[in-house]
Amino acid sequence: MRSIWMAKPKVGLGSLRMDRQESASLGRSEIRVSIKANSINARDIMAITGQSPLPLPDEIIPVSDGAGIVSEIGEDVRLFAPGDRVVIAFNPTHQDGPFKPEMALGALGEVCPGVLASEVILEESALVKLPETVSFEQAACLPCVAVTAWNALFELGSLLPGQTAMAVGTGSVAMTALQLAKTAGIRFGITSSDDSKIEEAKSLGADFGVNYRSNPNWSEIVREATGGMGANVILETAGPPSIAESVRACAQNGRVMQIGLKAMEGPPVQPLDLLVGGVSILPVMVGSRAVLERLVAAVAFNKISFPIQSRFAFSKAPEAFASFLDPVGFGKTIISHETGDYQ
To answer: How are strands ordered across the β-sheet holding 208-211?
Structure first.
């Protein structure tokens, strides 16, 4: 098998190397998966550049998101068979229900080995079956970003058709949430400091947008755009710099879904805004394997396709990470194994 490793003491793209290992034998409940596609997320960059808050080992295979084909199963495996198409759960220790702090170390690609390899061995509880109608590349877009967006909108956010959601920023979670929300009949807005990104988001279906840099009190514009109501759910990807304004942009009994932290300082949230508006602030820690299963079913049934920004062969993984750091537009960065390019 071939795999990409990141190793200390180096950090950054220079820490990546390709390696060859003998394929390991399977445990009784384990499955060997031949990887067909990976996608890159911001957390993968944080791990490679030494910014992860978790205690990373000296050497590890990075990347959490992957999809492929079952090539071998252990003798106790009952849910899968060789030839099954599968997608890998972001955090196999989080099977269902609420996230618990002790699960943080179970996410793939940081403390636990990731899936940027020609094959991986995982417990069957880490996998979800993939319908034929969902490509491996599209499936690789799901485990981290799409599960986070789905969880924020529908599982924790409890959104209903006809309601309004919005996202702070135009990153992968925001743009994925836009597609999921519109498919479900939900009005969706976006914020950005770049008017061109707002227009591009509108071309993809966003109903309204606001430039938070030129409109510091952007919650007022959100209320105007929603007939004075505000947004039922707001995906907050910045944190302290904008969370107070997100609270003010919420509808009565609205929910701010805290997904990321780009900075630790900003205007304080006013308790009166929370009390009068009945607003809740809820953290979103990606989501469980059960959430991924429901997401896969929805993507297959609704024929949802997420934009892909660029594709790279497995042997060009460092170039793929560099491309992620210098995006040319919306969409995921994919590492494809279909060519068998493991030189």
So the answer is: 208-211, 187-192, 164-168, 231-236, 250-258, 280-283
